[in-house]
From TrEMBL:
Molecular function GO labels: N-acetylmuramoyl-L-alanine amidase activity
Protein name: N-acetylmuramoyl-L-alanine amidase
Catalytic activity: Hydrolyzes the link between N-acetylmuramoyl residues and L-amino acid residues in certain cell-wall glycopeptides
EC number: 3.5.1.28
Annotated InterPro entries: Amidase/PGRP_sf (IPR036505), Amidase_domain (IPR002502), NAMLAA_amidase_2 (IPR051206)
Native species: Bifidobacterium tissieri
Hydrolase in keyword set: yes
Domain N-acetylmuramoyl-L-alanine amidase: 12-137
Keywords on record: Cell wall biogenesis/degradation, Hydrolase
Organism ancestry: Bacteria, Bacillati, Actinomycetota, Actinomycetes, Bifidobacteriales
Source taxon at top rank: Bacteria
């Protein structure tokens, strides 16, 4: 799979030049997945400079943002000590989607392959190689290396051209199959859940057709809903609230009552069965 390269972002914190050369690639993740981090959120952290850190790349399935030129020094690894010194000085940092989908692995593996084409056969290190951290969690660097070298099993890569999409029952219930299909169509991570929502109060966030087990709370917002809001020209807070529901209803051509109910979901399911939103 080819990935889209985004170059319109620049990290606030980095150091020009590489006096010691480049000797490795370091794999990070955006944050613990239980915190519901997003691609856009990771970019925002690095471009704002609020945490005095940066990375060369932010990557997920199909998208790679370059925030620091690899020929410059990002502030992602820590400098380490002894034999593990020089992380920031000599490594290229890739911040990865912590959800670790097959598509994430494929894109990151391709990025590693491309970097090695320019800088040589660089080894991969986890962030914890340089400093005391849990980052990058359970990321399988051997799998990334196999993909980069072209030896990963073919079945690990997405194959949309040969895999028939799920055909949804148009039943007006927004359960895991509907959400997964919605995520597939919108090109986001696929987990069958709308995450990071505000707790419903039966007035402003009324979603009667959304199955309870398919929504999580915490106020961080949903990657899926952000992508929907972007397509509809809405503010991208990731919350399935009344304004967003009305915009979805207008887009689908149903009554705009701000209730994410069965009629709205049936229209959504019909669109998704046509492989569109």
């Amino acid at each position: 799979m080819a990935y889209e390269t985004l170059t319109q972002y620049t990290a606030a914190c980095y150091t020009s030049g590489r006096p010691y050369g480049i000797t490795s690639i370091t794999i990070h993740w955006w944050d613990d997945p239980s915190r519901h981090p997003t691609f856009e959120g990771a970019i925002s952290t690095f471009t704002s400079g609020s945490r005095r850190t940066s990375a060369h790349y932010v990557a997920e399935a199909g998208r790679v943002a370059c925030l620091v030129d690899p020929d410059d020094r990002a502030w992602a690894c820590g400098d380490g000590v002894g034999r593990n010194s020089g992380g920031n000085d000599r490594s290229i940092s890739i911040e990865c989607n912590p959800r670790q989908s097959d598509g994430d692995y494929e894109t990151i593996g391709e990025l590693i392959r491309d970097l090695r084409g320019v800088y040589g056969d660089l080894p991969l290190h986890p962030h914890r190689h340089w400093t005391s951290t849990d980052c990058p969690g359970t990321y399988d660097l051997d799998r990334l290396d196999r993909i980069a070298r072209g030896s990963a099993p073919a079945e690990s890569a997405p194959r949309p051209e040969t895999t028939a999409p799920t055909v949804l029952e148009v039943d007006g219930s927004c359960g895991p199959l509907t959400i997964r299909r919605w995520q597939e169509v919108m090109g986001t991570s696929v987990d069958g859940k709308i995450s990071g929502q505000l707790v419903p109060d039966c007035r402003t966030y009324w979603r009667p057709a959304l199955v309870d087990s398919c929504v999580t709370y915490g106020g961080y917002g949903s990657e899926l809903i952000r992508r929907v809001q972007a397509q509809l020209g809405q503010g991208q807070d990731g919350l399935l609230g009344p304004g967003t529901i009305r915009a979805i209803q207008a887009h689908l051509g149903v009554a705009q009552d701000a209730s994410f109910g069965p009629a709205t979901v049936r229209a959504l399911q019909t669109r998704l069965n046509e492989n569109r939103f």
